[in-house]
Amino acid sequence: xGIKASGSLILICPEKFxxxxxxxxxxxxxxxxxxxxxxxxFNGQYYLRKPIxxxxxxxxxxxxxxxxxxxxxxxxxxxxxxxxxxxxxGRNIVNSNIYLIVxxxxxxxxRRFKMDFKRV
Length: 120
What we know:
With 120 residues, the chain is of the alpha+beta class.
């Protein structure tokens, strides 16, 4: 089934989150970039290691890395006093291939995180 949308953005509530990672990755060109990612299940389909562009969440991840480099989904939700999280999903088209990207992470109850636009 999967995620299908005719528009460029869709808001979903995953059935389950499988992972959150906050790390620096090296691209094929040799550039090092900070790329937070998440894994989740939606409509029974697994989506693994989807990049997150949400500026607030990127800032949260940088601060979280100061505590541990191995985040657990349950620990992140407990720290933020939430059990429910929605995602805004967008499309990134590269060489005619469509890739999903997490544009926004929406915790409920709502949590705000400091954004550092210089480091996004």
